[in-house]
């Protein structure tokens, strides 16, 4: 395999493993902000729509592009990323006089790692269950088999892990390429109907919304942060694919696609604030394409689970290397990438925990 083909394979694999969680955030972020059932809902006035979309754009730009892509991912431990890599770097570089500071930072790192393991249980349970429930839109008759179908899909997902993240990523990668292409096209369609939404790219709208309506804006941040959920997977999964493929995939496909879709949803809410807030993502799709979109979204949200599962494998390996976990069997699944691993014990422990949460 040539160098260009190998790089393309890594980028395709990264799309199928790393970006599933953050790439499916447009499904629910805007809807959650303007949800009528939320006691702290944001009313869909023109100023508020500009402010929310602007907040989402700048949150994604600052948290993901600037913080993770440009800064945090430079702090690697022999190519490995994640919070355990940071702990290792702290321990390696700490001076005797700063031992107490290093211990405090390490304790915070362990706390953060435990939160990531929790996310590795919660994300598959919520995303896959939500996806299967979404299928009811196309086929209401499946309502009685939502739980067993969810369990079957999850078990299949965990069985696939033994193939390795590279193989799983190559299987899921084309689906995510299609997903990002479709949501970008839907976003462009929405923007074309109301191009004034592009004004939301200015940070002045985010600032005016935050400081002009602080009480409402403060609570809306709980929904806006949904736009960046899964960002930690970019760093945690760095050992599987490397910084370069993850960076290129984000900058040239994922970031433009999700931003275009958020802008398109904002344009739709501006044009029809009464009806569009019920589900701006699906209403952005032409009526003839909604059933196919439900199916594609189901596949994408299943894939979203992969990012945290593979991140949990990397985290486990790093924790065992520095003595925070006992030695576990670790299978290396790639001859080219040392970071592509499978940890059977963690895989099946996560499977049991996720199924318990689902039920």
Can you put this structure into words, describing what you see?
The protein has a two-stranded antiparallel ribbon with strand order 1-2. The longest helix has 36 residues, at 99-134. It has one domain (3-358): Up-down Bundle (Amino acid/polyamine transporter I). It has helices at residues 3-17, 20-23, 29-33, 46-71, 83-93, 99-134, 146-160, 165-193, 203-212, 214-224, 231-236, 238-241, 243-271, 273-276, 280-283, 290-321, 344-358, and strands spanning 331-332, 341-342. The protein is globular and about 55 Å long. A hairpin with an 8-residue loop joins strand 1 and strand 2 (341-342). The protein is an all-alpha fold and 359 residues long.
Number of domains: 1
Instruction: Write the element-wise H/E pattern from the N-terminal end onward.
Output: HHHHHHHHHHHHHHHHEEH
How does the overall form come out from the CA principal axes?
globular
Neighbour order of strands in the largest sheet: 1-2
Question: Mean pLDDT, as a whole number?
Answer: 83
The helicity comes to over 70%
- Rg from C-alpha positions? 21 Å
User: What's the CATH architecture name?
Assistant: Up-down Bundle
- In terms of DSSP E residues, the strand content is under 5%
CATH topology: Amino acid/polyamine transporter I
Uncertain stretches of 5 or more adjacent residues: none
Q: Tell me the name of the CATH class.
A: Mainly Alpha
Distance between the termini: 45 Å
Oligomeric state of this protein: single chain
Tell me the total number of β-strands.
2
The number of helices is 17
Largest sheet: 2 strands, antiparallel
Which structural class matches the secondary elements? mainly alpha
